[in-house]
Write a structure and sequence with these properties.
The complex is a heterodimer. Chain A is built from 12 helices and 8 strands. In chain A, strand 4, helix 4 and strand 5 form a beta-alpha-beta unit. Chain A is 46% helix and 9% strand. In chain B, helix 2 runs parallel beside helix 3, helix 6 runs parallel beside helix 7 and helix 9 runs antiparallel to helix 10. In chain B, 54% of the residues are buried. Classes of the chains: A alpha/beta, B alpha/beta.
């Protein structure tokens, strides 16, 4: 594998049945669809509802996805949880099934001082030989990965950061705080273009669950230096993102967008609920407008 | 105001082995130490490392604690989780084993709409026949229970609140919203016993009482007697002990004090770690100067 992550790496949604059970086949089906368009998949993250699943469910989701997309796209596995032993268990399993890297939010629910966060990551690093990334998501975790903490994490063997702070300056601060070998990855589609221009080459965009072709085209336009087209696509992506957020929660919204493209049955797990019919109709009309009247079906 | 649970109710620690496995024997040691000193136990909460445990582990803790205390004191079980299903499984088990009530934080990690939070509690309420309480802990959960949301929770059958906002004003706002209803208000810290008692609340969930139940029970009794000089002296002591508990992670300090008192209370689970020797000496010195060990 290359040393750093590269390209479009969607945070794969986990699909649930109406009764809340994990739909392993549905999740694998989505992974297969995405694998036709993207560079890698990020499994069991925030979009993937990792924090809503038991350790056993997360292990099975990874196995179902891996057996479906083996030899098609590499996998990055999110192993973040509240406790160090569970994170280690998940990380070891990810390495066993061939993941190219693991990522983890700092332990959530409880708030921990830097020293304890560093120890948590040291333990994960000690237990696997694949790269370990820290995933900054202050909104869900309750506290941020500061640049000073990131520097300590690099010293402890962490190889990169996935940043979902939605703050373009944070990417710059991270780069300044770490070595050139350290990988800085963007955890949203919302800042794709500015992040690309500032040197980011790997993206974890939630919207790519529903529109992987579009995000891939955006990435390819950036790579080929066609910034005019990239800007045009970025505007389109941003509009779709706004529509997805009408559902109240991004994972629920993106699932609704997938449904509009004819993906078939799929539910979020509670406490998330399905988007209401009325909101769904409004969303659908707006998506249709973005595509000039025809929502492209899943090919 | 109902005041179904009166008195001092420690949010009991859960003990782990050095390797991080659940340590049932040491967990029982803690329950045994507390059961004839306090008025109830709150298990698998934040101090109890509930959010660090699997559903199965929580079931084992429930079994062990209920076996240890028998019917001597009521046991409230915290079932809060990121997802509803796990919370319901633990709640049902708690009821089957003889738990007196269920408490739950709002689902954490993700932020949720009020409707989703109400639905979460509604499912919990429907899954058991013992009372369900909401546990307000905005710092760990990421969002607060507002008085307006509390009213909606009351309407779907939630019967009380444990408030760890650490604000007497927030606590008062809850009382103002539902104080005239058949509803319980439990203060989730020893720091605000005077204020909560003054508003009519009679339940105190105190982290300090995990390891030092005596001064907190004394404070509660002084409130009952209305002895203001004594109340004020003991409330200040409670605050001082609370400061001491927070010189490191409160879980590790409470565990260390139990060890100082001769109770084998095991280890915290990672990412928490046992109290350092230097800090242990600080704790020991302070407790000796207060005549508490």
């Amino acid at each position: 594998m290359s040393e750093k992550l590269y390209g479009v790496v969607p945070p794969l949604l986990t699909i649930f049945a109406e009764n809340g059970e994990v739909d392993y086949r549905g999740t694998a089906k989505l992974a297969k669809f995405l694998s036709n368009h993207v560079h890698a998949l990020f499994v069991c993250g925030t979009y993937g509802n990792g924090p809503l699943m038991s350790v056993e469910e997360r292990i099975r989701v990874l196995e179902a996805v891996e057996s479906e997309v083996r030899d098609r796209v590499p996998l990055v596995v999110h192993v973040g949880t509240t406790s160090t032993p569970d994170a280690i268990k998940l990380a070891r399993h990810a390495e066993e099934v061939g993941a190219i890297a693991v990522a983890a939010v700092p332990p959530y629910y409880f708030h921990h001082p830097d020293e304890r966060v560093v120890r948590h990551f040291s333990k994960i690093v000690e237990n696997v030989s694949i790269p370990v990334y820290v995933y900054n998501n202050p909104k869900t975790v309750g506290y941020p990965v500061t640049p000073a903490l990131l520097k300590k994490l690099e010293a402890a063997g962490v190889k990169g950061v996935k940043d979902s702070s939605f703050d373009i300056l944070m990417l710059e601060e991270y780069k300044l705080a770490t070595s050139d070998d350290f990988d800085v990855v963007l955890g949203t589609e919302a800042l794709f273009l500015p992040a690309y221009i500032l040197g980011v080459r790997a993206f974890v965009p939630g919207l790519a669950n529903a529109f992987p072709e579009l995000i891939r085209e955006l990435f390819d336009s950036c790579i080929s230096g066609d910034l005019k087209n990239a800007k045009h696509l970025h505007d389109k992506v941003y509009k779709l993102r706004k529509i997805a957020y009408k559902a109240g929660a991004s994972n629920v919204g993106v699932l609704a967008l997938l449904k509009m493209r004819g993906f078939g049955k799929g539910y979020p797990r509670q406490p998330f609920g399905m988007v209401e019919d009325e909101v769904y109709s409004v969303m659908k009309a707006e998506v249709s407008k973005v595509f000039g009247g025809n929502i492209p079906p899943i090919g | 105001m109902r005041n179904r649970f009166k008195g001092v109710i420690p949010p009991m620690l859960t003990a782990f082995t050095h390797e991080g496995e659940l340590d049932i024997q040491c967990t029982k040691n803690i329950a045994k130490f507390l059961k004839d000193k306090v008025h109830g136990l709150f298990i698998c909460g934040t101090y109890g490392s509930g959010p660090l445990m699997s559903v199965n582990e929580k079931r084992q803790v429930i079994d062990a604690v209920l076996e240890e205390v028998q019917d001597a004191i009521p046991v409230i079980v915290m079932v809060g989780s990121a997802n509803v299903r796990d919370a319901v499984i633990v709640a049902k088990h708690a009821e089957n084993m003889g738990g007196s009530a269920i408490a739950s934080v709002g689902p954490y990690y993700y932020s949720h709409s009020e409707d989703e939070i109400v639905e979460f509690f509604s499912e919990l309420v429907q899954s058991v026949s013992i009372p369900v309480y909401v546990y307000n802990n905005p710092k760990t959960v990421g969002y607060p229970i507002t008085p307006r949301l509390l009213k909606r929770l009351y309407e779907v059958g939630v019967q009380g609140i444990k408030d760890s906002s650490f604000s007497s004003i927030v606590f008062y706002e809850f009382v103002r919203e539902l104080g005239n209803e058949d509803f319980d208000f439990i203060i989730g810290t020893e720091a605000l016993v005077i204020a909560a008692y003054a508003y009519g609340a009679r339940g105190v969930i105190s982290g300090v009482a995990n390891a030092l139940p005596e001064p907190i029970v004394e404070l509660y009794e002084a409130c009952q007697q209305g002895d203001f000089a004594k109340i004020s002296k003991l409330q200040i002591l409670a605050l001082r002990l609370r400061d001491l508990l927070h010189i490191s992670s409160a879980i590790s300090v409470a565990q260390a004090i139990l060890h100082l008192r001769g109770i084998n209370a095991g280890y915290p689970r990672k990412p928490f770690k046992p109290l350092s020797r230097e800090k242990l000496r600080v704790v020991e010195k302070e407790l000796k100067s207060l005549g508490l060990v």
